[in-house]
Amino acid sequence: MIRKNYENRHKLMTELALQVGKELQAAINARGRASFAAPGGSTPAPFLNALSQADIDWSKVSVMLGDERFVAEDSPRSNTKLLRENLLINKAADAHLVAMTREADTPEDVIAELISGVDAHLPLDVVVVGMGEDMHTASLFPDSPDLKSALADDAPTLAIIRAENAGEPRITMTARILRSARHKHVLLAGENKIAPLEKAISLTSEAEAPIRVVIAGENPATIHYAD
Question: What is the pLDDT of residues 155-188, one digit of tens each?
C-alpha cells in the first residue's frame, strides 16, 4: 500500500487525474480499450472534472461507477448525474458510459441486465473509490445484511445492498471485481478520514472494514489524501 499526502485538495485532484489519465492511455496502448470505475458522492467532482480534460483517446474508454444509488438519474443523489456533469464533458465527452442503474420498481428487476453490461468491460483497468467514516467503500457497508455475500470470492459482478446508513437501495461492484482492477486508488479528503483509515489498516476483517478490499492483499491501492 502506498500513501500519498498532498498539500491541498486541488493538488490531490489534479495529480490523481493526471495519474489515472496515464493509466487509461497505457491500457489503450496495450489492449486497444480501457475501463474505468469512478467514485460517487460530492468529494470527487473536482477530480472528475480534471480527468475530463485528459488528452487521451476517450472514445476507447468505458466509464462506469463503483456503485450507484437506486434513484432516478435526475435525482441530486444520482452518481450517474455526477458523472454526466463532471466527467463526461470536455475531452471525455466521447467516453462510453456503462449503466449502473435503470428505471424499474426494484433493483432486483434490472440487476441481471446491469451485470451483463458491466461484464462486457471487465476486468477494470482503473478504479477510484472513496471511504466513509464507517470504513465502507463503494456501497459495501459494514452494517448491511447483504455484505457477506458481496464480499464472497464467488460473488456476482454486482450486488444489491440495503443498509441503514445507505438510505435508498444501492447497486455496487462486489469485492471480487474491485480487487481485480489493475490499478486501484483511494481518494480521501478531510481530517475526519484519518482515524477510520488507520483503524482499517489495523484490522484484519473486511466485514468490519470493507475498505480493506482495496487497500490490503495483493496489488493494494494507492491512498491519496489531503486535508
Answer: 999 999 999 888 899 999 999 999 999 999 999 9
Cα–Cα distance, 139 to 167 (Å, whole number):
11
Paired strand residues for 224: 4, 187
Distance CA 143, CA 133 (A): 13
Q: For residue range 17-64, list pLDDT tens digits in order.
A: 999 999 999 999 999 999 999 999 889 999 999 999 999 999 999 999
Per DSSP, the residues of 77-138 read T-HHHHHHHHTSSGGGGGSEEPPS--SSSSGGGTHHHHHHHHHTTPSPSEEEE---TTS-BT
| Residues in Cβ contact with 73 at an 8 Å cutoff, skipping those fewer than 6 apart | 80, 81, 84, 101
DSSP label of 143: T
C-alpha cell at 191: 481530517
Q: Residue 222: how many CB atoms within 10 A of its CB?
A: 18
Q: Residue written as cell 434490472?
A: 110
β-strand partners of 172: 67, 159
Cβ within 8 Å of residue 34, ≥6 positions away: 24, 25, 27, 28, 60, 61, 62, 125, 126
Helix, strand, or coil here: 66? coil
